[in-house]
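pinning this so it doesn't scroll away 📌
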Amino acid sequence: MECAPYDLSIDSGGDRFPVCGPRLLLSWKPPRGWSDQAGYELQARIDGAGRPPVTASSARHLFVDWPWRPLRSGEAVDWRVRVHGADGTSGWSPWHAFEAGLLAEDWSAAWISPWEEEVPEPGSRPAYLLAGRFEVGTEVAAARLYSTALGGYEAFVNGERAGTAELAPGSTSYSDTLYAQAADVTAALRPGGNRVEILLSDGWYRGRSGAWRKPAKWGTTTAARLELHIRYTDGSTAVVRTGPGWTSRVGSITRADLMDGQTTDLTAAGAAEHPVRLDAVTAPPITWSPAPPVRRVEQRAPISVTRLANGAHIVDFGQNASGWIALRDLGPAGTRTVIDHGEHLDSGGDLTTAHLDSWSGPDGPSVRFVQRDEVISSGEPGQVFEPRHTVHGFRYARLTRGDVPLDPSGIVMRVVHTDLRRTGTFTCSDPDLDRLHDAAVWSFRGNAVDVPTDCPTRERLGWTGDYQVFAPTAARLYDVAGFSRKWLRSVRDDQLADGRIANVSPDHNRLKAHDDPMSNGITGSAGWGDAIVLVPWEMYRTYGDRAVLAENWDAMTRWVEFALTTARTARHPSRIERSAEPLPHEEYIWDGSFHWGEWLEPKKRAADGTLIDPVQNDPMAWYTADKGEVGTAYLFRSAHTLAAIARVLGRAADAERYAALAERVRAAWRREFLDADGRVSAGTQAGYVRALAFGLVPDRLRARAAGHLVALIEEAGGHLGTGFLSTADLLPVLADTGHADVAYALLFQRTSPSWLGMLDRGATTIWEDWDGVDADGTATASLNHYSKGAVVRFLHTHTLGLRQSPGSVAWESFVVAPVLTPSITWARGTFDGPQGTIAVDWRVADGELAISVDVPACSTAEIRFPDGTVLRGGAGPLSGRRPLTAPPTGGTGATAAF
């Protein structure tokens, strides 16, 4: 094969083909085995016409600015690249094709809305069929359908579905951002009369959201907009648009709620048609998403189908996932099949979802959790029920249809989530760790449904804290560059005027526009709002994307300035009681506003053995507790990171200012929360982990602080005690401070709280609570929350030993330094990063450690053996072996990154 660049891409998503706006960024991977790139040459064809070639003396091959004129609507582009360097001049890459979408200023179609004489209650609204007719001449060369909606939609041309994207147009902050979709529908057109249809439901726009199932506040009227651009072989064109003449009627989907479920009545007579309403909505300009779409990515057959005494069938798919069921056996005409979905079975083998009910105390509201689809059969052969206007989190389904028989072979789970490209793999000699890794991967998959959510069941919201915790792990498992950029746009859209970041984005409550005292009082928390700084930084470090830093810069600074202002102007009552006047260092203690804190640490047990929920048990005490240690730690981390971002963006004055502020915050944290013996005042495992991971502890006290952490673990009987924010850093901190034996003991712990304890109780995804399923088999909370699954990054960075070198960006330089334990005799894994695929394989045999590494182009690598031996190399294979003369423990110092 000719030596040439490969994996060409642009910074945009698209269904079946990439679609972008007028300007874009180009990326490619250097030729395999290439040692360096000193320059490149670009060629492009726009609508078949060649553009002047562009050459540059540059080592840059990631996110290169589009060098030609801005693109116009619908233009088709082919481009390719070749590079030169010390290895000579490469061959040309294959051509890479993409298109410009229909740009905002060129949309001329009207917004059309369904005719609704009376708007049903949220959760019980139907899907509407909006339809138009048009004529097509002969000899069609190409046809592109551009469409979007305020609501969830599917588009059809002559009954053929356009594209493969699901749950379009996706979840965004609809008041500010709306994405369109493009599909090639050439093959669906026919000479003469044609019909185009839009199936429109509430979706994320008007549907119910969150644990309390409140209607989203983006708008009260759904609408769709569509343009079909037809090009004939003689060069003439035609455009079909939504507008006058389109009709609206209720279709066979009589109920469509994104969370609760869908009802389809295949016996329903055709409803009366009405004219659509024109331009009854206000929408933001249409743009094009940087993320890949949601798709049906996999299907799973049941591993068992069991009939209960009451006649219901329990279907077990063997894996907790996100999606829906496709059902082929609908029974005779009039048969009603009810499908309930859930994660857990009760002691009698029946489906239970009681652990997902939402309850706010004895005097507060409660919401019973439901995921229910229904279908009424028409009896026609060949029909399939597949509810694509809802999505569920489930492993089990209960199918109820009375005495009508059920064919198990006609039941399939469709796994539905954003179609992310897998980049990281891991396996080792211990099958339990492989199972843990798989569970974490499935948890992320189930929560990567257009936005990073907390769980695919009870809430399905884009909690900022969840993704802040998991983003470094997500970036090892999948290419999440576009997925993250899309979500971050919603985070920016939802930012409040005072700089606070919403707890969830897209913010269905629209706190920015609708005052809600309850939501307002719990918005602006450390560890949650810091996602606006920490997630873009992780994307830059992993992918080398400066644009993600630049486009979030204003939002980052507004967030950090809010935190600094709050630290300066608000004090926790405990400090006011200590001193009426603030002590000088308190200017940098962020304690006077709401923080979630170290959310979901292992719960204590009452005398009767029941778990004590600190929030439900005494909500006021939890709400008013001093969480200044957490707030100040994150204020330091974000200010310090902001200084680094400013340096990357060439903002020298900002870099100097935020670096100085970060040091003042760190000094204040040390004075307030750290004593001379390295003890953190909170006295919790989480407090020590955070202090050590963030670099808050001086070097001279790190060993002592780590010793105090180990002592707390020993006091807990060898169990972890961390919660939401610090669990991801627990094992790396222990290994990097010389306590790898303790880290692995926690990893292999089987009694609760522990990761393997989850697996032993049947988990196939990571639980929200450490005791998500009690010893008696009772589920207590969501069984698919990915945050605690961030532990699997330790398997990549420490067990496998693969991590970026300090200061490296986009994996230009990396280190392989396995942290060994006697119970693991081999590990191997890969990471398909921006430079190419890194492959690592190590094994212990006959008293020796052998390590082999494949180093991708334009990269450098180091292998570090436990005895201190270091091997260095560039592109190509790198390997060595050393006797195990040193104990199979040790540290790397990697977590002291600040």
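📌 and the second one:
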Amino acid sequence: MTESRTQERLPEQPREHSPRLIDPARLHGPVLDPAWDFLRLDFTGLAFAALFFSWSLTPSLLPRDWLFQGLIGGINAAIGYALGTATGWAVRRWFLRKRSWWPLPEPWASAVKVFVATTSIVVSVVMLVYSAGWQREIARLMDAEGTTTSGYIRTGVLSLLVAATIVAVWRVLRDIVRWIAGRLIRMLRLSIPVATTIGVIVVTVLSLLLIDGVLLRGSYSAINNMFSLENTTTRDGAEQPTAPERSGSPDSHAPWDTLGFQGRDFVSRGLHAEDLEASSGRPASEPIRVYAGLETADTPDERMDVVIRELERTGAFSRSVLVVIPTTGTGWVNPTAAEAIELVHNGDSALVAAQYSYLPSWISFLADRDKAAEAGKLLIERVRERWLQEPAETRPRLMVYGESLGTQAGEGAFTDLGDVRSKVDGVLWVGPPNSNPLWGSLVARRDPGSTEIAPRYADGLLVRFADDSTDLAADGTEWLSPRVLYLQHATDPVVWWSPDLMFTRPDWLHEPPGPDRTPSMKWFPFVTFWQVSADLTNAAGVPDGHGHNYGTLVLDGWVAVAQPEGWTAEDTERARTTLQRYIDTSGPEK
């Protein structure tokens, strides 16, 4: 009896052979606790990370090399890890904690972790192999060079580094929140939820201030300064024009050294009257090219004054067609499009453009979209205002051309389709960004049964959309003048990129794919957004007729919009031959 009571009073002995794993952080001691906490993985998050990484390896619009795929894979893996961690926490808190069998005893707990880790690695490697095959499939559709499987495996290593960096930054921010909450609890005796909420708010505000006030603005300023320096340079081979029909010539109100890199490139390029005569076999005029750079005058209004004086000086209002070209960010005008217009009109044309930014299109798209629309509106309105002063029976046809961000700049001058057709005599817009309001409204209201990649609006009576020259062939249906035409490829990421891709599957991804888009491309939340974002960086780096590279299709588009009198299909092919020869011998376009 005494022995029994003694045993009852003895403290419970520690369990030497517990079936649970001992937390390694406790073994290593407090010195290594932070390091272990930093490296420790959530296995639900790991499974989600592998899933999102595998999704990111599925095909997109354009072929991607291992570098871009590694970046996109890492971003998506980090997103998956975050969602998986949150999901695992919620399941454990509201479902598993009340189960008698949870947490799992050993060896089941370790077995599950090993299974998750091993499966994640194996699935990721298998998907990398499949992804290399998909990339070769896309490359074949575009007549481009494909990747190798062995080279593509590097994607996995880069994705791991990118994902680890993002998770590490998140954990640092989380630890800062905990540190702030701990200080508030000790100093002000606040409750844990209140202190944590305050910590989150403080870290969020400071992060936003850092990103917006320092990183973004500082980066924007640095990039602007960098490209402003580039603006002072001149392309190799570009020489000051001597013909009075060009801005930058000795007779010009816009001096050569004020036109900027793209402006000097624009006025120095192109076919001259003798080249056009050799192509057409008929007497040709010397084409007029008018341009104003950012340094041509101090303000936008003053630059427009110079543009108007240049149009008057060169005799632009006596030509058969006057084409206003709102530019992309740096002031770039597509040389192929400019030369195509001049070939179609045998030099009896005047092209006018103006620079509004130092920044390339993709940066201007993110930071200067309103500025682009304002610049395009000002250019078109000022030229049209002066054009209206000419006698109606003798003034040239007023038309608009725009490409990429230039289409957004051009759309900024009009309120709707009716406004476009009432103010100008024809419009050709190439590769419009998905955020273009007019384009978006037309596509959204397309005829029932037509697809988003090949929309039909009002049976093609007022405006049309085309992917290639076959779409522009006469189909027997009426197309009223003035004509408005959008050229858009099914694989152009500029046309299809939108933040909505994060959460919503677009119509174009459940419709039959275009001729050069693989049917293997599927929509996944978050993942597709980052895939198409990566495609933007290589939008024009693919062969003609794909992506954002429209090649000589602009010639067919311009013929369809301008409807030159007496023009034949043979004329188009003759002009295409001349245009292609010029492209092949005149060097890079950008």
